[in-house]
Amino acid sequence: MSMSIVNQNSDFLFLFQATMTNPNGDPDQENKPRMDYETMTLLVSDARRKRDCRDFLKEKKYHIFVDTLDDKKVPMDIMFENIRDSWLNNKPKMERILANGELKKKADDLFGTNVENYKNAYDLLIVDLKKKEGTDEEKKKRKSNTSKLKEFNNLFLTEIIKEDLIDIRLFGSAMAVEGITKTFTGPIQINWGYSLHPVELVKSNTITTIMNDDSSTFGKQYKLHYGLIGHYGTVNKYSAIKTGMTEEDLKVFRKALVQGMMNNQTNSKQGQTPLMYLELIYKPDFDGYVGDLRRFLKCIYNNEKPIRKLDDIKIDFISLTQAISEMKKLGYLEKVIGWIHPFVFKNEVERSNIFFELPEYESIDLWKPIEVVG
After folding, report:
1. Looking at residue 269, what DSSP letter applies?
2. I need a surface site. Which of 79, 176, 231, 279 has the fewest CB within 10 A?
3. Residue 215 — very low, low, confident or very high, per pLDDT cuts 50/70/90?
4. DSSP string of 297-334, one letter each residue
5. What is the pLDDT of residue 2?
6. What whole-number distance in Å separates Cα of residue 318 and Cα of residue 82?
């Protein structure tokens, strides 16, 4: 397994289709699909894509930090305490992570040397820091140790992330946790997705029965007829260094983006199909980006006809292909990689008619299973 840290910037484009489904319900609007009603454009949050990835990686036994339990987000402070304590209680894991000399120095300064159980030492320190009474010297020492503990927690969590928390290595996180002052900027940033054409919601809403423990209620389900939605994202090499995101992590993300959507077969999400992933990988010394790849796409459709399936639209990639060609001439682009769903189009002719003037790319297999790590 490659453990090399990502050292190249990338732009990526992810296209998926949604048929008789609700890609991203808005809880403030009766869970109707998120919409810009002025342009009838469907919207999909970045959080939805990340949630699919996290849920799927969890199924594959990866440890994640931003988690849910019974559809409710687990508070960060509780998650941090559980993860922190599991490490502090595990001496072999602590010895491995304390191979980082800076972290070992901070641990020795706070807890002393030759510690048998870091969990006990940590708890005793917390008890001492909560004391109010004492001499001026003792209060001064507690204030100093409070500051040192924050420094330890920041570095401690950073090392745990690099070794064990793939979702923060990928997406980062703002830490709303007492005793943590560091914010982790994710190397992978995903923009809100939007449909490349106007969409129509199904006018007749489905009435569904919602079963509770001892009763049932009725609710509505809102769906759209059809949408081709595009997300744009970036990979940043400098943020990758800070979270420890490896080339292997990036490969896992690409697969989770596709397979996580396919794995989300709930009643409201069934009907979503990943269509395409395209990534522009720049040379290591290039620090820029082409920018939002969706602006180069042109969606062609008949204004007089309803859009109900992929055959009702065409996507013109000519401008994107030209932009890629220019970046290659300038010497900034190393390669383009991509994946297209192998069974959405009947044949190459149909694909070229609907997705025409596609840029050349090195094909990757995003259906290849992600190995279970647990």
Report:
1. T
2. 176
3. low
4. -EEEE-TTS---SGGGEEEE-HHHHHHHHHHHHHT-EE
5. 47
6. 51
